[in-house]
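*** Residues and shapes ***
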Amino acid sequence: MPIHDWTRVDAGIFHHFHHTWITEIQRALNRGLLPPEYYALAEQIAGSLGPDVLTLQGPTNGSSFPSEPTGGIALAKSPPRVEFRRRSEAAQYAAKAKAVVIHHKSNHEVIAVVEVVSPGNKNSRHGLRAFVNKAGELLQASVHLLILDLFPPSSRDPQGIHKVIWDEIEDNDFVLPADRRLTLAAYAGGPCPEAFVQPVAVGLPLPEMPLFLTPDVYIPVPLEATYEAAWADVPSFWQEILTAEPPEPANP
């Protein structure tokens, strides 16, 4: 199945597909691709990546979330009287996005992460910086990464997401091919990280990509099969929009 042009739909539609694709990848990994001492979960990884984030947490002994403050004004009931109010839908969905997180059974530490890039990860300086910082922290913590970016470069990542991530490790002159502007990138984390980058394009099938379990051992992730399974769950109305022939350019 060819990669679709996800810029044709809004962030909420891609978020639906993103969620399903992550689930399909996690299922494929747990159904025989991962060695028996590993398992995969669909989780959120956000904020600073301390030891508590990189190790699965146990029961909380009944502790509850903090209650709402007793003072203050409810935004829904009485919005502030201002001229302009904006909310970034793309950033909202990016904050909710999950990744496939691979743990080792012995101590449940995070071994590797599969991230699908959302529009909100690249539509602002803050969004891109947060994503790149998280990737850098994971690699420094010896966590291996597989990043799947089905969106074209923006002004903030003109040569794609990989170059921005790798620039944090060392200056580099990576350039995406003119005819393949989407990026799949696998990283072996650790003191001397290594990158394996495959440019792709709308209309091309997805290749298998490596997911490292150690700096020297990886498993191939079936991106094409999992993408196709996730696509089947996209509502037909949006499938038609994503597969429609592009309009003919207007005559000058």
Remarks:
- DSSP finds six helices and eight strands in the chain.
- The two ends are 35 Å apart (CA to CA).
- Confidence is low (pLDDT under 50) at residues 48-53, 56-73, 82-94.
- Helices lie at 11-33, 89-96, 125-140, 161-167, 223-231, 236-243.
